[in-house]
């Protein structure tokens, strides 16, 4: 009976041992599999750990730098405040010093200042007298008088004297050349400012400037002479005995022409009371832009185009230089507009 009990006990112990060995083996196997999986999952985190430590160190360093900069700023602000206070104190001391020393200084300088004032007043008087005599000695005429070629004139309302070209085209008294076209070197499809003030070469193609024309014709009666030359040498002219334009605020309106004489069509009368236009200061109909020119436009239906495009040969071109019923309305070789005081 005892032996059976021993046998059963031994058998139970063997079964328990076998079960424990199997359980441990399975546990180790699971531990191995879990460890492998956890390592793969945690590996990136482990790799990032040094970088995190480095970033933490940089952040700590930057915090220290910020704290140091704040200290320096506070010190600089204190220095600036001290400098301002010092300047204020220096200014107050200087003001007090000047106030204390001023009476003695004034006693010393008053006679000297009086002498300098008298001397300067004398010089001003002398300079004024000299200027008056100088202006009298270099006074300029307001027209060509008897001269031809380039001449300097001065007109009331124009600040400085200016040069004009004088042409005795009628063999009696010289005329001021207001406009001349003799080649394509100067573009007459020009800006308003240039037409107001003048442009071009005084010895070649040029425009004297509408402001000068206004000042000249405003001071006294002027006459206008227009000289036309065709490519075949034919000459024509139009003449008006009372030419007058308005000031710039009236857009240099063609105010008067007077009586017409000549051997060509009276084209200028078609523009009487018309305003002057350029491409950048154009009419509602945009005539200056359409004609590539500048003129006194009432409409785009024009009877001449003296500021049109220059052509080196004769053609039928409405954008060129032409005059109604002269040379068949074809482009012209040269034109001149001249003015002078009416005689």
From TrEMBL:
Organism for this UniProt entry: Drosophila albomicans
Pfam families named in the record: Fibrinogen_C
Sequence ranges assigned to domain Fibrinogen C-terminal in this UniProt record: 135-343
Stretch forming the signal peptide: 1-20
Name of the protein this chain belongs to: Microfibril-associated glycoprotein 4-like isoform X1
CDD domains: FReD (cd00087)
Record's keyword terms, sorted: Coiled coil, Signal
PANTHER family: FI21813P1-RELATED (PTHR19143:SF327), FIBRINOGEN/TENASCIN/ANGIOPOEITIN (PTHR19143)
Coiled-coil stretches: 52-79
One cellular component term from this protein's GO annotations in UniProt: extracellular space
Source taxonomy: Eukaryota, Metazoa, Ecdysozoa, Arthropoda, Hexapoda
Domain of life where this protein originates: Eukaryota
SUPFAM superfamilies named in the record: Fibrinogen C-terminal domain-like
